[in-house]
Amino acid sequence: MVVAERKNIEEIRGMVDRYSSILVVGCDSCVAECAAGGHRETMLLGAALKISFQQDSRNPRITEACLDRQCVDDFIEQIAHLVPEHEAILSLGCGAGVQALARVYGDKPILPALDTLFIGETEMRGVWQENCLGCGKCKLGYFGAVCPVTRCSKRLMNGPCGGSKEGRCEVNPGISCGWQMIINRLETLGELDRLSEYVPPVDWSTSHSGGPRRVEREDQKP
Amino acid sequence: MKTDSRLERVLQAGHFAVTAECGPPKGSDAGVVERKGKLLFGYVDAVNVTDNQAATVRMASLAACVILKNMGHEPILQMTTRDRNRIALQSDLFGAYALGIRNVLCLTGDHQVFGNQKEALGVFDLDSIQLVRTVRDMREDGTLIGGADIESPPKMFVGAAANPFADPAAWRVVRLAKKVQAGADFIQTQCIYNMQRFSNFIAQARDMGLTERVSILAGVTPLKSAGMAKHMATKVAGMDVPEAIINRMAGVPKKKQADEGIKIAVETIQHVREIKGIAGVHVMAIEWEEHVPEILSAVGLDKRPKV
Ligand code: SF4
Ligand code: SF4
């Protein structure tokens, strides 16, 4: 899933202050799982904004709505009736949700309430971990299902570097060394031999380096 | 001979090689490089020129290499993959060779978080082992990454680093083997304070036949003070400074600590010379180049062979 965090109220106010009516739109998928932009967080942000404006003796019209998925037209259209009554939309979707709203509602300002961070997993309650950079050519099969592109701070294919210490990355002790994880995992599987071979340079052309990517499938088109 | 590197000739002739490190200035004054070059001149077989070490902006390694080359030094161009992608790295290799550089040390580099440009994009298009392979392929096959032919391929003597003190401990020698496999001709190690761990590492390398295939230069950094020892022990990535060394430094009066640090460096060199499979030393006197001659004189390595 996509993991995000909500921006602070000051930054959000900086974007929405010029409008007198704001539609606050959440997304009940990924960003609900990471407690940043789901139904609950949408209602909370709406309330927080109202209080914040009241402190400045302002009273803009603020309406909350939440979509099941903010990156799919079928769902986005469910708020079509609310859009004309508001000057701007404040989105609690990820960056993809914000841009999908902007495509559908081409004449409305759409503003991001979240900082979109990464593709990751819920490791435990309250802890989310980045583990895929969407490189476009998944190598997990060779690295014991631990991603060197994402979990190594230097994206090493032939790691670990000389900074790995007691399972921690040189960048910061809060980061597990991805390469220590790869080695541990392959050791458990009895497949350490996978690492004795030289791994050639990565083909980054399938990643974002090749430009924004797009998937088109005729069998899925209407 | 694979190249016309002086360092290769020294090692091939069986001499115990001596290299030293020269960090370029944090500015554009060629005089700083020349002063450091003068201090080392005649005492070393080759000089490593660091590439924005600790991710701090400094004069380009290649520029400083050329300044040293013009003084009669044999430079070793350090190249990290942190700041340049494969286009820039390969292009710099062409340029370096055109300017007379014959040795390159391939590194991944310290992460940008350690330096004075923490907001920088880390490139890491290649890793150090892939860079070793790239330089080797240029020389042996005359090709770029991807196989395209090079008109006049650079023929560099290829080096890589090894850190026997990082984790996972059992993996360090495997990684050394990968670097040798990829084409490293020489290895310069992380600076040694834990002699036991270093000896074990070299013994493993010997058992795998690696010391026959690659020339290993043992890294030595003289400590300036007990404070520096503590800093290296706790703050510098990939360093192993045992308690005993810190205590030894702290055990002498502040004024005498520099002398004690030099004494430890001298003992370290004497020790590694006795280890089978060590082909030379690499002295990294960080902003302390003026002490390299006295360290080398103390161990009788100050006269360099004519090759
Ligand atoms: S290899 Fe690529 S696709 Fe697979 S997990 Fe890593 S970044 Fe994601
Ligand atoms: S310490 Fe580990 S995770 Fe960090 S850069 Fe080095 S190999 Fe990668």
At CATH's second level, what is the architecture of chain B? Answer: Alpha-Beta Barrel
Tally the structural domains of chain B: 1
Count the DSSP helices of chain B: 12
Range of helix content of chain B: 40-55%
**Order of helical and strand elements of chain B:** HEHEHEHEHEHEHHEHHHEH
The shape of chain A, in one word, is: elongated
| Shape, per Cα inertia axes of chain B | globular
Structural class of chain B: alpha/beta
Number of helices of chain A: 7
C-alpha end-to-end distance of chain B: 13 Å
Tell me the strand order in the biggest sheet of chain B. 1-2-3-4-5-6-7-8
The small-molecule ligands in this entry are: iron/sulfur cluster
Spatial ordering of strands, largest sheet of chain A: 3-2-4-5
* CATH fold field value of the largest domain in chain A: Rossmann fold
Percentage of residues in strands of chain B:
5-15%
Total domain count of chain A: 2
Gap between N and C termini of chain A, in Å? 26 Å
Low-confidence stretches of chain A: none
> How would a textbook summarize the main sheet of chain B?
8 strands, parallel, barrel
